[in-house]
Amino acid sequence: MSVVLITNSRNGAKNIDISRQETNRSNLREAINLWKEIIEIDEKEYKSFKDFSSENKELERLILTTIPSRLTKNHILYGLDSPENISWFHIKKMADEYLNASEWLQINFCKDSTRQSVEEQVQRKMLNEGLQSTGFNFYKCKPSKWVYAAKILSKDEYLINDPQKTRKDIDTFGTNGSANIWIFQKYTKVGGGHQDNVIIETQHFISDSEEFILENNSNDYFIAQLDGRFIEAQTKKIRKNISSGSKVFAGNTEEVINWIKKI
Q1: CA dihedral defined by 10, 188, 179, 247, rounded to 10 degrees?
Q2: Distance between the two ends of the chain, CA-based, in angstroms?
Q3: What is the pLDDT of residue 48?
Q4: How many C-beta atoms lie closer than 10 Å to residue 223's C-beta?
Q5: Which of 25, 30, 104, 187 has the greatest CB tally within 10 Å of its CB?
Q6: Which pLDDT value is given to residue 195?
Q7: Which of the residues in the chain have pLDDT under 50?
């Protein structure tokens, strides 16, 4: 599914919100094409929908997993004695119902942008666009790295040091050839439930970064890039845990860009 990244504003949260919605619209356009393909499948080629295979893995997943799962949840309403009785008729009937629905409903039955890492991609794109003149380039951190126990660790090293997996990995790595920037990225619009864990995860990252700075004399910098109404409201409290202010920072995307320019 195509991700759409909008970075017209200097406000990271605004760009993320718009990008999420535009990505959902892109997902809907692709979903409509998939639903049409389902209706046109020649059942003679596949005795059962369970036998279906395709190079288009989105189409394959929709037929083998997504639609059958939705039918199973309410199989009685769909006139089925058992989920085992799901057939091509029911798969195609569901696809046809999707196609005949209004966009208001259709958009709720395609992939949701919250599952496509849109937030992180927008934040990274804004860094690359806002810091072009500095020589810094930013990439998804691959292979995964963790800052922990005063070290930058690979996945295997991290799991040895922290088998309980209490930390999140680093999202983005930036470098200008001499300085390295390790970035923990979060977008949280509203609090409550799992979102409250974001504060703990951010505080862990800050404290681990502080420990690294105290134990190492290197050209490494650590940033918590925090966008969204809820998390931005917590930034002042998060910053109280920072003592190495020249090498550790927390702020929204616009603030992060301005801070990096001073490195």
Answers
A1: 100
A2: 37
A3: 96
A4: 25
A5: 187
A6: 67
A7: none
Buried b / exposed e along 53-73 (16+ C-beta atoms within 10 A): eeeeebbeebbbebbbeebee
Task: Report phi then psi at 45, rounded to 5.
Answer: -80, -25
Q: List the chain domain ranges.
A: 12-114, 117-260
Nearest to 92, CA basis, from 27, 41, 31, 50: 41
- The sign of the CA dihedral 67, 61, 21, 17 is positive
Gap between the Cα atoms of 214 and 245, Å rounded: 12
The pTM of the full predicted model, rounded to 2 decimals, is 0.91
Q: Measured between alpha carbons, how far is residue 117 from residues 71, 121, 225, 247 in Å?
A: 28, 6, 15, 27
Residue in 32, 17, 205 with CA at minimum distance from that of residue 102: 32
State the pLDDT at residue 190: 82
* Contacting residues for 101 by C-beta, under 8 A, at least 6 apart: 109
Long-range CB contact pairs, 68-72, < 8 A, 24+: 70/94
Residue 245 is predicted with a pLDDT of: 86
Give percent helix, percent strand, percent coil of the chain, each to the nearest 5.
55, 15, 35
Instruction: Check whether the bond before 83 is cis (ω within 30° of 0).
Output: no
Domain 117-260 belongs to what architecture? Answer: 3-Layer(aba) Sandwich (3.40)
Q: Is 37 exposed, middle or buried (0-12, 13-18, 19+ CB in 10 A)?
A: middle
